């Protein structure tokens, strides 16, 4: 495993990060997820990402259970706040009330006194940004949070948040966006702004919800137990399930074989090779998937291979920066 600094901060994380988003959200049982987390520990992964909304808080509980007995200072735990965790008017957003209460609840579920990185899961236009940043700063001063980051914020939102957070002495150090060979919307605005401000990208879905592993065949049925067969998983992977996309993805297979990599390893290695990326978040439903993905750590792809990847996917690559805040269309479920 290799380790990278998150932006200009002193925090170092494993370049492969383990996340338990959809892999625990009704898709696999708790014991299987614990096995995957322990496989991640064995593989050298030290950084673990979760959120208060994942499986209604169960994801944090399972992560805490899996890390019980592990020396706390040997791992980095990241969680998030903003998306709705209940039906009450204050069970969502980035108000001081919700941030403080959610942080305490996350710490309880995780079984720890602090989290290394606390992230605003989305931007909240209904709460004054000053209120949100002050709450995050207070959590840092209380010792409950070591660093603060955001997730899926636009470049303009990142700029505003970073300015306020810096004035309060707790500059934002990270952004957590979706990023893959197919989904590159951060490249035009978000990543350049973040790099200028000293923030790193800790990216999720580097294998595009499993599509870039090559397991989905054009014209074929989705493998049993895959995200494409799960009602919730289909909501996220569905954008990639056309035969046009799947056929083009299959053309990456010989490129991966040429580099002596699996298609999943090629996808993760590609993400890690891009400037500004501090870590790539992987998920797994089986321990062997963890081992496969972590083998992408330290891989360097030659320039000619990178060009052929671009040429292969070409017009299927999403680059529109306006798609940054539109990810999965989750916000309209609770914002006015």
TrEMBL record:
CDD domains: Aldo_ket_red_shaker-like (cd19074). One of its GO terms (molecular function) is oxidoreductase activity. Residues 15-312 form the NADP-dependent oxidoreductase domain. One of its GO terms (cellular component) is cytosol. Keywords: NADP, Oxidoreductase. PANTHER family: HYPERKINETIC, ISOFORM M (PTHR43150:SF2). Belongs to the shaker potassium channel beta subunit family. This is Aldo/keto reductase family protein.
